[in-house]
Amino acid sequence: MAIHNDLGKKGEELAVEFLQNNNYQILERNWRFKKAEIDIIAKKNDVLAVIEVKTRSSNYFGNPQDFVNQKKIQLMVEAINEYVISKDLDVEVRFDIMAIIKNKNTTKIEHLKDAFLHF
């Protein structure tokens, strides 16, 4: 497996741990619909958090959240619409980004709630 894939998997593990420590219930990981993959679907109270995890070893080329583009957002919105309908859920949906910088010396996790409002 490529090193960047290892880093991505580690980032997702860190995100799940962070969310669980903050009272989120993890419902799905790597949920797929058509061309979309949602890294984490979690619930806290009556809010369904749709979470894109972006992990980088540094911010030299930009912050992790800067790598979520409009196409990714569009795919995630379409996918979560299908998820909510197929599960017959009555919840508020929020799109978050977990921006993680992980290298051998440090780990920084930033949970950006309602992240797509800023695009």
From TrEMBL:
<dbReference type="GO" id="GO:0003676">
    <property type="term" value="F:nucleic acid binding"/>
</dbReference>
<dbReference type="InterPro" id="IPR011335">
    <property type="entry name" value="Restrct_endonuc-II-like"/>
</dbReference>
<keyword id="KW-0540">Nuclease</keyword>
<dbReference type="InterPro" id="IPR011856">
    <property type="entry name" value="tRNA_endonuc-like_dom_sf"/>
</dbReference>
<dbReference type="Pfam" id="PF02021">
    <property type="entry name" value="UPF0102"/>
</dbReference>
<comment type="similarity">
    <text>Belongs to the UPF0102 family.</text>
</comment>
<dbReference type="GO" id="GO:0004519">
    <property type="term" value="F:endonuclease activity"/>
</dbReference>
<protein>
    <recommendedName>
        <fullName>UPF0102 protein BX611_0727</fullName>
    </recommendedName>
</protein>
<keyword id="KW-0378">Hydrolase</keyword>
<keyword id="KW-0255">Endonuclease</keyword>
<dbReference type="InterPro" id="IPR003509">
    <property type="entry name" value="UPF0102_YraN-like"/>
</dbReference>
